[in-house]
What does this fold into?
Amino acid sequence: MRKRFAFATAIVLAVAIMITIPFDGPIVPFTAVAQQQEINSNTPSPTTTSSSNPLSPNTIFKKVEHSVVQITSKTQTTSAPNPLNPPSSNTTLGSGFVYDGEGHIVTNGHVVGDAKVVDVTFVDGNRYTAKVIASDPYSDIAVVQISQNSSQPQQQQLSSLKPVVLGNSSELDVGDAVIAIGNPFGLDDTMTTGIVSGIGRLIPATAGGGSIPNTIQTDAPINPGNSGGPLLNMQGEMIGMNTAILSGTNTFSGIGFAIPSNTITKGNTQGFGTENNR
It folds into this structure.
């Protein structure tokens, strides 16, 4: 068993796209690394449902497409002026989902990285600035909040935010059908389908973070850019957050992992917090 985990550690990759952008150079994509996560909330959680009637994938997509966002974070990698090493920045593209009606968006910690603010883009093209209010490299979960200083038209749009409906991940069984929605390779609003391949999986610790216990294994295709996007059951409820893949090629090979929704919500009485937890 230890040998199996040691092998997995070498090829478990997070599913966020990172793009290195020199000020005067080309764009070079590569994948980032993943860990675990957990969330806190001092605001009412989205309404949960327990309906057992399955919906069609098309119905689910229309139900949640306005709740899934693309997150763009930028961090500068070179600060001191140096003509031989011009300033550059890293741009990371990932996914996230609307958690409540107050502008809180949940995503992975490795999506926001060291950024203090990120851009949040909805499927209709509306783009907002959001502050990173909580991010834990060991749990690999981050919460950002859309700026309350938005223009009046944007404020009106924010008033119609559609939070995801949270499902109970403890009710999942192997073989259950699931749907992943996110922005793989920057292709916004992409949906893929699959099943729950396993439950209670442990993703080994990676550099800079801790191991992720009790994750959901799925064969629903997820790729770089899907990080932070929701994994849904056939009632359209969020039952996991897509976080990592097991691959030797940096692209999907049939094994993906999602953080259970119950892990994300179990600390919701402690509050989101007001400072970056780094």
User: Anything to note?
Assistant: The chain has one domain: 2-47+55-76+88-265.
